[in-house]
Amino acid sequence: MAAAAGAAATAAAAAAAAPRSPGAPTAAARARRLPPLLVLLAAAAAGPGAGGAARLYRAGEDAVWVLDSGSVRGATANSSAAWLVQFYSSWCGHCIGYAPTWRALARDVRDWAAAIRVAALDCAEEENHEVCRAYDIHFYPSFRYFKAFTKDFTTGENFKGPDRELQTVRRTMIDFLQNHTDTDRPPACPPLGPIPPSDVLSLLDNRDGRYVAILFENNSSYVGREVILDLLPYENIVVKRVLDADEAFLEKLGVSSLPSCYLIYPNGTRGLMNIGKPLRSFFSSYLKSLPDVRKKLISLPEKPNKEENPEVVIWREFDRSKLYTADLESGLHYLLRVELATHRSLAGAELQTLKDFVTVLAKISGIFLINRIKWVGCQGSRPEFRGYTCSLWKLFHTLTVQAGTHPEALDGTGFEDDPQAVLQTIRRYIHTFFGCKECSEHFEEMAKESMDSVKTSDQAILWLWKKHNLVNNRLAGHLSEDPKFPKVPWPSPDLCPACHEEIKGLHSWNEGQVLLFLKQHYGSDNLVDTYAADQEDAHEGGAPPEGGEQEQGLVSPEKPQGEQRAKSLRPPSVLPPRPDLSQGLQLGLDGGHQSVSRAEGHREVEVAVPFLGMGFSSLDMSLCVVLYVASSLFLMLMYFFFRVRSKRWKVRYHRLSV
């Protein structure tokens, strides 16, 4: 994040001339806001990373090599094998859905490990944030190939397959191996290229005590190369492949169809291999089962197997009818300090998108930028479920509702009088920065289809609600769906009975009632501070805040939601007045965006104290101390210098008078 924030500062001048996206305010209206925005970016850069995340792959349980910040460089640098590494995020729905395919791929090519290995690294883990930035990972999942014997640091080669199906990835792995030169090819990997038909005659007289399997296939076939790699860890057998052999020659060997395997036995006998189907699995299984064909004792590096201490999951009771500040703050923390930090530099349209998004957040969200993650209403039954994506939807709904109910908050920003302004800002942020690329593409498709039809702020609120339900419908039953929180049309009848109707026996939405519900649900009066960072800071080490609930260890999420109530600590009120960005935008870091109920002097001091160190790293603080000491010494030296000089003048004056 520090790199991105620093780049944002250096690119400020260029941003003024950046092309304006549809729906964006003019550059002149935003130029005066740059310094405060950079203050926020600097604060975001200094904060620690997100909390621990759930891993989709387990070392010792899956065939996938599980890497982390401490092992990825050592594994891929100067390795005797090539690597295919998936950089993923455990909150990414597409990554969750793809995990079974990646596990199956790793199992399928397990015997290829001496030549190429399938690995995964979770960029959602706090310890891996920096290394994912170093490898320039912006979107999830990202697939990178690393060649064998690579001595200098490299971010790898991007996967270039037409899709990510298992067979496609497996074949691109073969292509990648063949792109190695003879000098840097993994030593355990046999030649994968075809031999000329003329060499077959010399193989027919094989007498070296090994089996020789000759696979005849056409140019487009990968079967021969797959079988060669499948037999890589086995001894007493050699596999070769031949392309486009002469028909007369094939007929002489009894080969009538492709692919076919001609087998030469150690004793010199030979013949066409008779198997049920001409498939890779049939060829490989038959050859592995031959007498005296057995696995070699290949020494592979030990898989990274960091001991995983199971986290003690604390279930926080919550009320589904409430909106929790902790969810919004945690989502903002991850958005700015983790997701945005994957971009090393920002300029032009990217920088403008960020400035616009932060402006909208600062003006109408009323939330704090905290330094840790704590899900409440966005908790999942497992750590990889819900969480960040849930908080983003809540944040986006809050922005559209607050923009509609408090349009004056956007005065002077260039966004006023534009009902699409917030939606278009969200759209550009998702398209530019959201880590799940497939998710952002789906959102962009929905936006292109109908976002331009939004003419009022109420329509903007309903547009986002409709698209959210479309996404829920598409992901219902997906592997990323939390079984304890199924994706159903929202709001459910128990939350808003008036929202649901039946017309001629078919379910129908009463959009007028839905609009009223959304304005109430995402309004400031419904925002609950229980579990929020500032509430816990005030009660750290003591009892829970008044009106809050004590956290229950390992409480089942199956508990009826009707019993899960939390009293709001925020009194019913409109959003407090927003200070102008020119007065210093810090999005709650200085206590300026707190609820009016927290305006007491001692509370302001408590909020201000942690801000003194926020935005500064330990190196910054050390430099401050060094400069302070150096300036003190300089002042002391100057003092003694002038004191001595003064005495000398006095002596000279005294002598002259005599």
From TrEMBL:
Region Disordered, residue ranges: 537-596
Thioredoxin domain: residues covered: 36-179
Low complexity composition-biased segments: 541-553
Membrane-crossing segments per the record: 625-642
UniProt xrefs under InterPro entries: ERV/ALR_sulphydryl_oxid_sf, ERV/ALR_sulphydryl_oxidase, QSOX_FAD-bd_dom, QSOX_FAD-bd_sf, QSOX_Trx1, Sulfhydryl_oxidase, Thioredoxin-like_sf, Thioredoxin_domain
One annotated GO molecular function: flavin-dependent sulfhydryl oxidase activity
Cofactor: FAD
PROSITE patterns from the UniProt entry: ERV_ALR, THIOREDOXIN_2
Keyword Oxidoreductase: yes
Matches recorded under SUPFAM superfamilies: FAD-dependent thiol oxidase, Thioredoxin-like
Reactions catalysed according to its record: 2 R'C(R)SH + O2 = R'C(R)S-S(R)CR' + H2O2
Annotated PANTHER family: QUIESCIN Q6-RELATED SULFHYDRYL OXIDASE, SULFHYDRYL OXIDASE 2
Similarity field: Belongs to the quiescin-sulfhydryl oxidase (QSOX) family.
Function: Catalyzes the oxidation of sulfhydryl groups in peptide and protein thiols to disulfides with the reduction of oxygen to hydrogen peroxide.
Protein name: Sulfhydryl oxidase
Taxonomic classification: Eukaryota, Metazoa, Chordata, Craniata, Vertebrata
Gene name of the record: QSOX2
